[in-house]
Write a structure and sequence with these properties.
- By secondary structure, this protein is an all-alpha fold.
- It is 66% helix and 0% strand.
- It contains 10 helices and no strands.
- Helix 4 packs antiparallel against helix 5, helix 4 crosses helix 6 and helix 5 packs parallel to helix 9.
- The protein is globular, with a radius of gyration of 18 Å.
- The protein starts with a helix and ends in a 24-residue tail after the last helix.
Length: 232
């Protein structure tokens, strides 16, 4: 049990590293929480720090989820630090525990008064090792939505929704044998709901037409999305 607690705490602390804050202070000598949306995610980093540093923040956030899962895979591959009473695969359960702990650390970082980012990139890093194909499809939808709307938040919300749907369709419609599916499908739904919940303020702004748009990323201007509750 002490080993399990150690995994949770270690993964949480890895996820809690405030990448955007560190990069902002190191390269720009600013506290990114005082600029833009004040969020510690990569979207605000791109807006405030610029593209190169935004990419650095994004890479660091993705690596936090990946490192947490790889840490578990390396040290507990042959045995679990607890008795698994679930019907699910041992290593899959442990990876999920580590990954969720890292995402919660990113969202509620102990280093910045339990605030943080939305958790998309850290969740992406975690899910790459668990379901790379489904992640790839979700990322494809993210890119398509961002390029056709200019809204990174909308792309993140759509990708969060698409991930469990993709997994369900591949397993049940196309009969693809996804390792650990019976565990991952419920887990993916939970992660999806958490990430969408973390974007609740963005959803409100999207509905009322107040969300910040990245015009430079809005490359496919076939149509313009009109917010249903906007005044215009």
């Amino acid at each position: 049990m002490l080993n399990l607690i150690g995994i949770i705490v270690t993964s949480y602390l890895i996820g809690s590293i405030p990448s955007a804050l560190i990069v902002g202070k190191l390269f720009k000598k600013i506290d990114i929480r005082n600029y833009g949306s004040g969020n510690l995610g990569s979207t605000n980093a791109f807006r405030v720090l610029g593209v190169p540093l935004g990419i650095l923040v994004q890479a660091m956030d993705i690596s936090k989820g990946l490192i947490a899962v790889l840490f578990v895979s390396t040290f507990f591959y042959d045995h679990l630090p607890f008795t698994n009473y679930t019907p699910f695969e041992d290593l899959t359960v442990l990876k999920i525990i580590a990954g969720i702990s890292a995402v919660l650390g990113h969202t509620f970082s102990v280093f910045v008064n339990f605030k943080g980012g939305k958790g998309i990139n850290t969740a992406l890093g975690m899910l790459i090792s668990l379901a790379p194909v489904d992640v790839g499809i979700s990322v494809g939808f993210f890119i398509l939505i961002v390029l056709s709307s200019g809204y990174v938040s909308l792309g993140s919300i759509v990708a969060s929704f698409v991930f469990p749907v993709t997994m369900f369709v591949r397993e049940n419609v196309f009969k693809v044998d996804i390792y650990g599916y019976n565990t991952l499908i419920f887990f993916s739904i939970g992660v999806s709901l958490l990430l969408i919940y973390n974007h609740r303020e963005n959803i409100k702004r999207l509905l009322y037409g107040n969300e910040n748009r990245f015009d430079k990323l809005w490359l496919i201007r076939i149509f313009k999305i009109k917010a249903p509750f906007s005044k215009s």
